[in-house]
Amino acid sequence: MNKIWFIGAGPGDPDLITVKGRRLLDSADILIYAGSLVNPDLVASSPAGEKYDSNGMSLEEMVPIMVRGIREGKTVIRLHSGDPALYGAIVEQIDLLKQEGISVEVVPGVSSLFGAAAALQAQLTLRGVSESVIITRPAGKTLEKDKIFELSQTGETMAVFLGTDKLEEITSRLACHPETTAVVIYHATWPDQKIIRGTVQDIARKAADAGITKSALLLIGEVFAEDPQGHIRSFLYS
Questions:
Q1: What average pLDDT does the segment 36-47 reach?
Q2: Which phi and psi angles does 16 have, rounded to 5°?
Q3: Using the 8-state DSSP alphabet, how is residue 230 labeled?
Q4: Is the pTM of this model over 0.85?
Q5: What are the Tetrapyrrole methylase domain coordinates in residue numbering (predicted)?
Q6: Which of 60, 65, 97, 106 has the fewest C-beta atoms under 10 angstroms from its C-beta?
Q7: Between the CA of residue 59 and those of 67, 105, 117, what are the distances in Å?
Q8: Burial readout 80-109 (b: 16 or more C-beta within 10 A, e: otherwise)
């Protein structure tokens, strides 16, 4: 029996899907993709005879389509934005597929975090500035309580997903210094990408002034400063 392929589509630029992901997409019979989060050019380029936008679909609607496809001997692709390992909700899908005796394989993708770092020409871990990266999200409909305050006490690089509509609230709860560098990047690697630079105390207002209310990543830390203070050259090239 075939397996179902979970593929990371990358952050937006259709050329940033992996070679393996592209090859599998080209062989798809059934494609279930993550709505507006996946570049429509990728979806359009797939020869799949059946294409489903998963936006608004329940697991009970989506999983039977995948199961039917596999039992008909078809190649079934589940296409997620970025990398499925970050806020991709793939485990609940995989659990239901396993109950049907169907195996899966995951093909990683380029996270929007790395697309954003590339756009900023930044290094998330920079000797003398930050040796760690915290990836988190704010509380919301599916998370009762977050740890943004506690995590921001560490002084390490932070990336906050899924919080564009709460920037004022998030930044007001950060424990780091108000002058700490902060960046909001909308649609990293897409043609309409926007980069808003500021500090913890003014980034929310700047993003609002730019009309950014969704699909953006909040980055916090001095690794994103124009001239990161405290940077020490690595030993790699000494």
A1: 93
A2: -95, 5
A3: T
A4: yes
A5: 3-203
A6: 60
A7: 12, 18, 33
A8: bbbbbebbbebeebbebbeeeebebebbbb
pLDDT value for 236: 80
Tokens of 134: 């915290």
pLDDT class of 238 with cuts at 50, 70, 90 = confident
Instruction: Please report, for residues 45, 117, 229, the alpha-carbon distance to residue 184 in angstroms, rounded to integers and kept in the order given.
Output: 30, 11, 20
Rg (CA), the chain: 20
In the three-class reduction of DSSP (H, G, I as helix; E, B as strand; rest coil), residue 117 is classed as: helix
Query: For residues 78 and 58, what is the distance between their CA atoms, to the nearest angstrom?
Result: 14
- Using the structure block, give the residue that is written with the tokens 């005796």: 101
Q: How far is CA 43 from CA 35, 55, 88, 202, in A?
A: 10, 14, 18, 37
Share of the chain above pLDDT 90, in %: 91
Q: What's the pLDDT at 195?
A: 98
Is the pLDDT at 1 greater than 70? The verdict is: no
Report which of 166, 120, 121 is spatially closest to residue 146, judged by C-alpha positions.
166
Residue type, 193: Q
Task: Give the pLDDT confidence of 63-104 residue by residue, as tens digits.
Answer: 999 999 999 999 999 999 999 999 999 999 999 999 999 999
What six digits make up the tokens of 93?
């899908």
